[in-house]
Amino acid sequence: MKAPARMFQLSDWYGADWDHKKPVDDLWVSPWAKAHYKLRQQEIEIEQCEYMLKQAVEAEDFAEADGLRTRVERLRSQHPITPREERLTEAIEEQNFALAQVFQNDLDAVKTNLGLPKYNVGQAIKHAHREGLRGIVLDVDLQCGKGRSWIHEAGCLERGCAVDMPSEEMDISQLRSWANQPFYLVLLDLAELKDEQAAEEGAQTWRWKWPRELAAWEVNHFAEVPAPLYLPEEALVLDFNDEAAPSHPEMDAHFSTYEMYPHRGRVYQPTPRLRLWQQQRQKDEQESRRQRGAFDISSKNPYDRMR
Fold first, then answer.
1. Could you give the angle at which helices 82-93 and 62-78 cross, rounded to 10 degrees?
2. By residue range, what is the domain housing residue 95?
3. Is the whole-model pTM more than 0.70?
């Protein structure tokens, strides 16, 4: 196992004439949105091929299975992240920690060059400052997609929680940089939030422990489960708890199996239903922004655009 000769560059993917400062197509999130979208589509194609491969094997159509297996191997080898993560896992399993650090640095550099978020869909995470808040990433936005009022309320709460200060004492001028980071839709672990007394009486209620300002969307009080949370990247860390899996009534609808990695913890495989929902969410968000009218595409900060 050899360390990579050099770091991955974005031009390796798009060609030498790639200009990250030039707007691309109908881009509205950031100059890196196209790279993020392309990577997501590549991952979905790999998942679809793996699903068809499993069906072909079960049907004993071995010729089709061989073709699909070759296709999956080719797609995975072309993925800028997956092969590096596999090398990193192998180095850790072999306890070659010096080489593992080289692979980790290379992986971090690739993600930085691609403008990718730190955590992927299906990653088990927990909140760095709110005890007991853990869950699984449902979707990722490269920057905060909420409006100014949400950024003001949630930003003051989260930054205040990080430094142990009341939200009303936070400097709102710093919210612009706070909003300019990846944000995650997180499916909550509800194991400790269920109201056991209500459950015994046949009701499905939950003891909400977190600020409602962090909710990804408003939910009717009679909804079966709380809404996912919308959390900034700086507030999240990996969850390495392999003894207690996150519990949620909709887990099976969104995720199937999972793998446990020494450097990433628990990572779940998204279901086709979740992928379709992600694609529809992106389309709905783009259409919503178009309907709001013209805006300055050169502005990288949604806090500025919503003023």
1. 90
2. 10-114
3. yes
